[in-house]
Amino acid sequence: QDIRVGVIGVGRMGADHVERIARRTKGARVSVVSDYLRETAEKVSATAPGSRVVDTWQEVVAAEDVDAVLIASPGQFHREQVLACIAAGKPVLCEKPLAMNPSDAYDVVLAEREAGHPVVSLGFMRRFDAGYGELKDALEAGDLGTPLLLNCKHRNADVLPGFTDTHMVYDSAVHEIDAISFFLEEPAVSVQTVMPRSTEKAPEGLHDPLLFLFRTASGTVVTDELWVSTDAGYEVRTELVGSLGAATIGQESGLVTTQQADGRWGGTVPADFRPRFAAAYDAEVQAWIAAVADGSNVAPRSATAWDGYVAAAMCEAAEQSLTADGPVEVTLLEQPA
Ligand code: ISE
């Protein structure tokens, strides 16, 4: 019996997930979709045979033909929608971020705690990227020794209109912020912003590029260089410098060609996160469906509601550090038992 998935929000990311579940995910199908633009929902539903459209996200959560919910709406709606899934007892995979502030994220942690069993998976897809997995394995095996530095670069060709410094933190840097939890298994205790002058292509309200410096309690330093209006393409590189050696992932490794005509040598850069992390998204959703099917609801290595809260707490400090003189402390509430 296939897991029937209801999808809330079928813009760029949600439509990509619908296509994935309809075509490639084993043991699942899309049963219901909604979007604040009904027309968009209808278009996307037409690509997933057997799915139907409803007007509101509440109807997706309540639908009898929905066993599990995938949320791909904008971040500011996540708290309310995830809380509704918990209340309905339906496993949910929510796209990052869990919330746009730590207090909203903590509400989700507490509600899941009340429910008494795991319900919430958080869509930090990089945890399912092959390179991320290899680096994690190398760290766990002790091959790299003690982590000293984690150097991250995150570049986008462009961003949607209205993208501000706050989005840079909660939408973009949040990926590296989760990488801190994933690789180092401890949150940052402080964060500092370093602001180079901005590119002339930076949209209004955005400092671009931006550099964040994080420090963990045990003394690892994390550098996160963000540049989201490169015009070039999507690039994510991560280097872990350990006491026994350094390891780098995310180097472009696709087809490299020699262009005889103009004397160029090289490859291409993916346009955005969909092609770059296609395999990671596939693996993430497949692992989630397997976890829903076996009743554990949250796949091994998946980010949890707690990871989402910790990320939000680090994001809050990162956002404050945009206008602070020195490092800003990260404060964390206690993890409920
Ligand atoms: C977007 O929301 C993502 O999640 C992408 O991975 C990131 O590169 C981009 O900057 C965000 O806006």
Describe the structure using short key phrases.
337 residues; Rossmann fold; 2 domains; 16 strands; binds (2R,3S,4s,5R,6S)-2,3,4,5,6-pentahydroxycyclohexanone; GFO_IDH_MocA-like_dom; Gfo/Idh/MocA-like_OxRdtase_N; nucleotide binding
List the helices and strands and how they pair.
Elements: E1 3-8, H1 12-23, E2 28-34, H2 38-45, E3 52-53, H3 57-62, E4 68-71, H4 78-88, E5 92-95, H5 102-115, E6 120-123, H6 130-140, E7 147-155, H7 165-184, E8 188-194, E9 210-216, E10 221-227, E11 235-242, E12 245-249, E13 257-259, E14 264-266, H8 273-276, H9 278-293, E15 303-304, H10 305-321, E16 328-329
Parallel strand pairs: 1-2, 1-4, 2-3, 4-5, 5-6, 7-10
Antiparallel strand pairs: 6-15, 7-11, 8-9, 8-16, 9-10, 11-12, 13-14
Bound molecules: (2R,3S,4s,5R,6S)-2,3,4,5,6-pentahydroxycyclohexanone.
